[in-house]
Amino acid sequence: MTNSVGIVTPQKIVFEDPIHLSSGYVLPHYELMVETYGTLNADKSNAILICHALSGHHHVAGKHAETDKAAGWWDNMVGPGKPIDTNKFFVMALNNLGGCHGSTGPSSINPETGAPYGSSFPVVLVRDWVETQARLADRLGIKQFAAIIGGSLGGMQALRWSITYPERVRHALVIASAPKLTAQNIAFNDVARQAIITDPEFHGGDFYLHGVVPKRGLRLARMLGHITYLSDDGMGEKFGRLLRSGEYKYGFDVEFEIESYLRYQGDKFSTIFDANTYLLMTKALDYFDPARHYGGSLAEAMRQAQAKFLVVSFTSDWRFAPSRSREIVKALLDADRTVSYAEIESQHGHDAFLMEDAPYMAVMRAYLNNIAAEIA
């Protein structure tokens, strides 16, 4: 595995102190699944936190076993000699609270009942995740991150960090993100949630007790989401109107290649993700609005920040369009904060932030090299 962090082992960290969530619910204790790459330096100034997007998790780079077919979700970005260079930085990532990849979430056993939390698991917001991430940093003795980086929902976490803990963020990298969702984006999320909630196997969120999974709802939610993550041009270039059999069948089975692709992605997702977690993650997206507590002024919210910012967008991303990133840039400039902005030409839509695109990689590498020089 050239330029790979190699075989990595996730670690589950237990937090016994209760956390008071934004919803008012108090979670008496919880666990976070964490992976780290690279070495923390003596003064602990080279730490980078990577925040995951909606369906992400802690497994960012490397493999858990030699036999794994795929590496972590951002393996092209993180590793020795890569833009987020693990020869220079100590990189940490975690599965957010409410997740379904090892951290405490709806499918976890509630120790008070001995049954899965299910529908009783509380709504969590971006600020709650930031609180748990700050506690994790405290556990490792990290007082300030060299950078906090995230794409999409991860970018929202980086923004929240810079507002809530300004002294703890040296740089915030906000990629393919937005200061809040548009009505159209909230609508997409609600359609996805309705697909899950109305699945006969959902059982009000307590499907674990029935030994079933609302696969149909999850499948539809993922198919809808996947369409919005791609661009029309990118989808057209990859699939066009290609037919699986080469001719029309005049029925409702899979005929076009794009139908086959979406159903495959939906089916695959329904076997690896939790329906309640999907509901929670999309709600966290909907609720995110840092300007809300600053009279509706994003600039006033960002005035709390001390970090320097890199904001990146992609031309074909229509779900979190470049105009949304420029809103963040304008607010930062209005707040007299330091910000660099890159708008990358790409046909990959919202998913471009996960792709290995040369100009994008170059921007990230240059910015992170400057951070490495600052802390050296």
Polypeptide structure, described:
The protein is an alpha/beta fold and 376 residues long. It has 2 domains: 11-180 and 289-375, 3-Layer(aba) Sandwich (Rossmann fold), CATH 3.40.50.1820; 185-283, Rna Polymerase Sigma Factor, Chain: A (Orthogonal Bundle). 34% of the residues lie in helices and 15% in strands. The protein contains 10 helices and 14 strands. It has helices at residues 126-140, 153-164, 183-197, 215-229, 232-238, 257-272, 275-287, 298-302, 322-334, 358-375; strands at residues 11-15, 19-20, 26-27, 30-37, 47-51, 78-79, 84-85, 90-94, 109-110, 115-116, 147-151, 171-175, 308-314, 339-344. The strands form 4 sheets. Strands 1-4-8-5-11-12-13-14 form an 8-stranded mixed β-sheet, with helices on both faces. Strands 2-3 form a two-stranded antiparallel ribbon. The chain has a two-stranded parallel sheet with strand order 6-7. Helix 3 (183-197) packs antiparallel against helix 4 (215-229). The two termini are 28 Å apart. 48% of the residues are buried. The model has no long low-confidence stretch (mean pLDDT 97). It is found in: Cytoplasm. The record marks 319 as: Important for acyl-CoA specificity. Substrate binds at residues 222, 351. It comes from Chitinibacter bivalviorum.
Give a summary of the structure in a few sentences.
It is built from ten helices and 14 strands. With 376 residues, the chain is α/β, with parallel strands linked by helices.
